[in-house]
């Protein structure tokens, strides 16, 4: 690879986007670097694994902070200049809305640096206030003027970006999220002792945990052999705990490192997100042979086929979530059938090897362009 590849993300929390960043640093080998801020559940892991190929910017935060962001602009620029002097041309691959804006503008100010931004999910969504929407939308528009390529995990985001005036048509590359299917396998589940409905995700507004709690309360009231598990943590944990207090069949277990083991104990995967890219946890659940009941948002319908590999529901429709989960709980053959179809779909359309190859091909294409200019 003619240019070095630098991944850039504001914080290494535990999530699908962060896992993809780690995979890309691994795939680019000694020519791959990671720039990130301090903290996050995966911070220690990447520090140990990547060593000197990890560069920390203390002022880099996920939240908007004009002073820190101003400082970070110049700190990031200086880091890239130093890397250029040592290695030559750079491709800066940004992840996350905050880093996508900051990183693309920095890259646009440096003649030796091309940028790629991956949209894991737009921060612009129906749940933010009009002022924030105005700021986020125009920040994306400005940043797109400096970027060279945009990867969207969900095909729907290409049309949305064009409609919003973000980027040019020839900048977009659709490379869906993907997983190593061989890492996940359907366990032999003992349904004699009831059904387990599981969720993996941050306890943040995006994942809609308050609706999750309402649904869990209603379903466990109807079915005495059903248990709900939430794997994850976040700022809404306290409110969810209050909502489900006293119900021993609704459990918040915090983060678990053994995702494969956790999924093997579930029978149905439930994710009522308000916005997404293509959720990695949904792909992992499908690869594990689980039917998925999820919200009909962004790229999720590109993974989950309604009434084939699971069910799709409007994000805040508690009644419909309860209805669809109840249908599955009462029909264990349907659980098995939808799970098998989901497993086949992931293997066919979301193969890790295919998607990584397409990303590396894009790196090579941009590397050739930067060398020819």
Topology:
Elements: E1 4-9, H1 16-27, E2 32-36, H2 43-50, E3 54-56, H3 66-87, E4 90-95, H4 97-108, E5 113-119, H5 130-144, E6 149-152, H6 156-163, E7 172-174, E8 195-200, H7 209-222, E9 226-231, H8 237-243, E10 250-254, H9 259-263, E11 268-271, H10 280-287, E12 292-295, H11 300-303, E13 310-313, H12 318-329, H13 332-349, H14 352-372
Parallel strand pairs: 1-2, 1-4, 2-3, 4-5, 5-6, 6-7, 8-9, 8-11, 9-10, 11-12, 12-13
Helix pairs in contact: 3-4, 4-5, 7-8, 7-12
Task: Explain how this protein is built.
- The structure is a single chain.
- This protein is of the alpha/beta class and 373 residues long.
- It folds into 2 domains: 4-178 and 351-368, Glycogen Phosphorylase B (Rossmann fold, 3-Layer(aba) Sandwich), CATH 3.40.50; 181-349, Glycogen Phosphorylase B (Rossmann fold, 3-Layer(aba) Sandwich), CATH 3.40.50.2000.
- Helix content is 45%, strand content 17%.
- The protein has 14 helices and 13 strands.
- The strands form 2 sheets. It has a 7-stranded parallel beta sheet, with helices on both faces.
- Helix 7 (209-222) crosses helix 12 (318-329).
- The radius of gyration is 21 Å and the shape is globular.
- The two termini are 17 Å apart.
Name some characteristics of this structure:
373 residues; Rossmann fold; 7-stranded parallel β-sheet
Give a quick precis of the structure.
The chain folds into two domains: 4-178 and 351-368, Rossmann fold (3-Layer(aba) Sandwich), CATH 3.40.50; 181-349, 3-Layer(aba) Sandwich (Rossmann fold), CATH 3.40.50. It contains 14 helices and 13 strands. The chain has helices at 16-27, 43-50, 66-87, 97-108, 130-144, 156-163, 209-222, 237-243, 259-263, 280-287, 300-303, 318-329, 332-349, 352-372, and strands at residues 4-9, 32-36, 54-56, 90-95, 113-119, 149-152, 172-174, 195-200, 226-231, 250-254, 268-271, 292-295, 310-313.
């Amino acid at each position: 690879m003619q240019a070095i590849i630098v991944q850039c993300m504001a914080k290494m929390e535990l999530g699908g986007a962060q896992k993809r960043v780690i995979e890309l640093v691994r795939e680019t080998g000694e020519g791959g670097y990671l720039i990130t801020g301090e903290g996050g559940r995966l911070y220690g892991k990447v520090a140990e694994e990547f060593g000197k190929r990890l560069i920390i910017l203390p002022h880099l935060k996920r939240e908007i902070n004009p002073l820190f962001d101003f400082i970070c602009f110049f700190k990031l620029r200086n880091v890239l200049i130093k890397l250029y002097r040592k290695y030559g041309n750079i491709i800066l691959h940004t992840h996350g809305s905050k880093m996508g804006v900051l990183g693309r503008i920095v890259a646009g100010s440096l003649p030796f640096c091309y940028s790629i931004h991956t949209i894991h999910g737009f921060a612009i969504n129906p749940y933010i206030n009009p002022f924030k929407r105005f700021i986020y939308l125009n920040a994306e528009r400005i940043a797109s003027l400096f970027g060279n390529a945009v990867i969207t995990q969900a095909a729907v985001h290409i049309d949305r970006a064009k409609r919003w005036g973000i980027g040019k048509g020839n900048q977009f590359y659709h490379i869906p999220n993907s997983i190593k299917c061989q890492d996940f396998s359907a366990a032999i589940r003992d349904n004699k002792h009831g059904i387990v409905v599981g969720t993996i995700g941050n306890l943040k507004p995006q994942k809609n945990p308050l609706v999750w709690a309402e649904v869990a309360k209603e379903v466990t009231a109807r079915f005495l052999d059903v248990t709900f598990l939430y794997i994850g943590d976040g700022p809404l944990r306290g409110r969810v705990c209050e909502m489900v207090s006293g119900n021993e069949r609704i459990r918040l277990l915090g983060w678990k490192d053994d995702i494969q083991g956790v999924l093997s104990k579930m029978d149905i995967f439930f994710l009522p997100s308000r916005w997404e890219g293509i959720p990695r946890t949904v792909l992992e659940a499908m690869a594990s042979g689980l039917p998925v009941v999820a919200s009909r948002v962004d790229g999720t319908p590109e993974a989950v086929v309604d009434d084939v590999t699971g069910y799709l529901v409007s994000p805040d429709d508690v009644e419909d979530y309860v209805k669809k989960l109840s249908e599955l709980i009462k029909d264990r053959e349907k659980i098995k059938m939808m799970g098998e179809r989901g497993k086949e779909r992931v293997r066919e359309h979301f193969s890790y090897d295919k998607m990584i190859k397409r990303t590396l091909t894009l790196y090579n294409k941009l590397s050739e362009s930067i060398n020819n200019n």
